[in-house]
Amino acid sequence: MQRLLTTAKWDVDAVRNELRCCVGEWFGDPHSIIVVSQAAFTKRGRHSAGVKQQYNEDSQRVENCQLGLFLGYATPYRTILIDRELYLPEEWRHDNERRTRARIPETAFASRSALAIRMIDRVLDSELPMSWISTAELADTGPAVHEWLTIRQVPHIAEIRPSAPVQVQRGQRMVRASARELLRQAPTRQWQQLWQRGRFWARVLLRTDSTRDSATWLVVQRMRDRRQDRYYVASGPAGTALAELARAAQAAGGVKTALARAKDRVGLDHYEARRYEAWYRHVTLALFADALLEAHTHRPVPALGNGVGNGLANGQPAGQNGYHTSQTMQGARGRCLHHPTRSPAIMPAAIMPAR
What we know:
Blueprint: H1 2-6, H2 12-27, E1 33-42, E2 52-56, E3 61-74, E4 79-87, H3 96-102, H4 112-124, E5 132-135, H5 142-152, E6 156-160, E7 165-170, E8 173-178, H6 179-184, E9 192-193, E10 200-209, E11 214-222, E12 230-237, H7 242-250, H8 252-265, H9 276-297, H10 326-330, H11 332-337
Parallel strand pairs: 1-5, 5-6
Antiparallel strand pairs: 1-3, 2-3, 3-4, 6-12, 7-8, 9-10, 10-11, 11-12
Helix pairs in contact: 2-9, 4-5
């Protein structure tokens, strides 16, 4: 196993791309949401790539850990992890000894915002069907990701800090104000309880673009402790309902569940490799194994008369709405590793092409 993660010759990014293609074939659904989330991997010692004393959201304390960013594909039925990036703290850039031992290239250093944008850019360039992109629970990356996605004209909702400045249109001019200040100006009647026993939500229109028929809002989720209210900035079609924005924001919960499932089922966090590339290799293989198990255990349920129960919608095959595909029912195990139209991502060293 150590050889597979360290010295064996294979293209980890090709495996990642194959994973994304397989997920699209098995679970592709135009109503799906792409979610960027973060996970911590507790480690001992100081030589694992990117390890540092930093805050672990899972344990709610500062401890020695690595931070990974993950991209989740949240369908109406389940969430599948499809991409990953390892965050390297700035202190590692200037520690030549540890960098050399972990074999970290200079190009590996990037902010969490840049890593999130890197993963989103890859999925936007793919053919994976989706409706929204969400970066909930990554408030520090929110403004940069929002600006980038707005330029790309991609519907999205990004969590931000209450103190983060946002632009609001006042007449013919744009005014900058903090998210918290804008919330204070929202009338009480705008708060809505969207689901029974659910949280209250509100939004404030920031600006509109009539040429694109789009709008940008400040969205707020009210928590029991008002100091923990969650703020988001969202951009999408002008007719988008508040419930749709809230659904996109809450998709982050599915990624947390998927991360916990992968840790428990395929050992996502069970590795001893310290090298930078070894982290990517282990995590990528773990994500692929988790997706295979999700596809293999997926089974249709009896139809309800209109095709909803068995994954048929609008007369389309089930594979087009994210419920199941014929490949899944035939057995995902052989389908994924022996794709008929793409070259294998892992090749014996003897036939690897020369670089």
